[in-house]
């Protein structure tokens, strides 16, 4: 690390902020010229990298998972074209096995020259709605190798010294279901990198090449110094935990562990993910780049005041064993990493950092999910191919002293925007029928997890259409910390209110659907923080009035008995005597509830005697939510998780609260 700073403080600060503005201008260019609705909803990120490929600056709304990998793809281009990079060149790459994310995230990279000297790279990563493969949207859970997931693009040249290589672009677009959108987005991303080139050269003209190159280096050194200083103020030590993927569909049921050991040693952070499960037979594995990015994003969440660039990465030493779900090699399927291993790494780190920085504690947050519907749109005579590509907001975990955020973008990328229904309905034959906050979805705790939402839709004039869903946590349900309780399961229902209604689960692909079919799905809330029996009864009453908690949920999860005064005016009152009695009874029984026979509880569930939330939160029992069949190994693992994260923080038998 370079301790000496050679730029004067004013020039340094001006250039640091100017570089951020340049990247934000790239984003504005993309928003005004992109073709696909997915990218318009901000599923993209940009960065400036130095001549060695190190990230110098990101923008203010870029997506965490992209930013943590952009230096890898810049370096991959440098390695592939070493000695053969020229002014006017532009490259493309999406390869997750050299540090990219998944095949849909295509990076466009432009070298920036001053005269004959290469001084920087401008990079734009955008999620293309389809890159081929076996299903629309390129999310196929049955894929065990990448060959069914779509185009793998190694570092290739798209512009050669200013000449647009239409033949290469045609090769890419011809292997997708939306060639017009793909080329349009490619051009929008390339234009964004051109904006960056123009602004970088403007800064060179104003401040001089040497000054700007010094700023590139010192911005990274500044972030490293700031991060090391913050880490050195924390206690040394080692902390361990694990999170889970729901299961491996190619094997018997059972949670898939991702184990994380974190060590703080003076001003360095070491992560060891040894012991994580071997690669699984579906696309929820993470590649090397996204495994590292999950570590970066999880860590950065607890250092919000620190900018993010390659200087931050110097403080982190990560061991990601190959051939595991956190570092899957070629040709393992990895497209669903975002809903699989990636966010599990992040949430595991949230728990570890909550122990180190309890003032910033954060329980588990809801899982990123994508619902994809693709087919032929019969609303026009030529029945073009359509892609309805949707993600939802959900609840973040409860915090130390504050409830979790309701209906918030996933931790995967807080910059993601909710797609407006009007735009979706204009572009696709899918009508949104419902979108609302789900009561009782926030994990109960002294500080409640944020609430998730439910979204429903109806299919209209379409043919040859299939549905796919990339999610998780139907079984490894969003958990609480410090005594907090879990949220609710993810999963999609098809025609739920009809006799032929079917629960499709939290991960599936290529399900045939037709005109008139209806679907609905919830997003989970966040996990709770602290013992729910210590929550202020008045806070529970307010939750009932706001529609975040039902009267039944208040009694079941918090032991708070609420009576209606005037429902139309949202007026309720707490029955203090009944609440004391209810809480005492829960304290007396809740340990034994976690030891009741799972088979008997599953039978009671199928008979309608026990509901989903009661089964999960009181008994720690996990079922196949479509059939009601007990999942014994999963239940064993889930109960063990509750015994580790939740039970030790309960004050059973105490009269408090």
Automatic annotation (TrEMBL):
GO terms for cellular component: cytosol. It comes from the Bacteria. GO terms for molecular function: 5-oxoprolinase (ATP-hydrolyzing) activity. GO terms for biological process: glutathione metabolic process. Residues 8-532 form the Hydantoinase B/oxoprolinase domain. This is Hydantoinase B/oxoprolinase family protein. It comes from Rubrobacter marinus. The lineage of its organism: Bacteria, Bacillati, Actinomycetota, Rubrobacteria, Rubrobacterales.
